[in-house]
Write a structure and sequence with these properties.
There is one protein chain. The protein is mainly alpha-helical. The chain is 62% helix and 0% strand. Helix 1 packs antiparallel against helix 2. The longest helix has 28 residues. 14% of the residues are buried.
Length: 117
């Protein structure tokens, strides 16, 4: 899913943006990183909007979960093929992120999310 671009975020909140310094030197992974950042920005915009519904927030979070699963699998495969010495740590970081996303998705499903978090 391609990110949408609703109105700008609250100017007081830091917004992650892509920069070439974040490049990992793999065009496909960089593209996925950009997409994930934009999906995250879209979610932040929704959370900053008083009129955003639970359905909209849930859908945005589901997009992030789906994209991150695809990305993590690709990234882990590339790291494995290239003999990355920190692959286990990288996989553990991905697992931690997946668990956090699952918790957030569950919270949103129950209407119990904390927009500030």
């Amino acid at each position: 899913m391609q990110p949408k671009h609703p109105p700008e975020l609250n100017p007081g909140r830091p917004v992650p943006t892509w920069s070439s310094s974040l490049s990992v030197g793999n065009a496909k992974l960089d593209e996925q990183h950009i997409t994930l950042l934009e999906l995250g920005r879209d979610l932040m915009r929704l959370l900053d909007t008083e009129t955003a519904t639970q359905v909209q927030i849930h859908a945005a979070l589901e997009d992030i979960v789906k994209q991150s699963q695809l990305h993590d699998a690709r990234e882990e495969k590339i790291l494995e093929v290239n003999g990355c010495p920190t692959l286990a740590e990288h996989k553990a970081a991905h697992q931690t992120s997946r668990a956090e996303l699952a918790t957030l998705l569950s919270d949103v499903s129950r209407g119990a999310q904390d927009r500030a978090v």
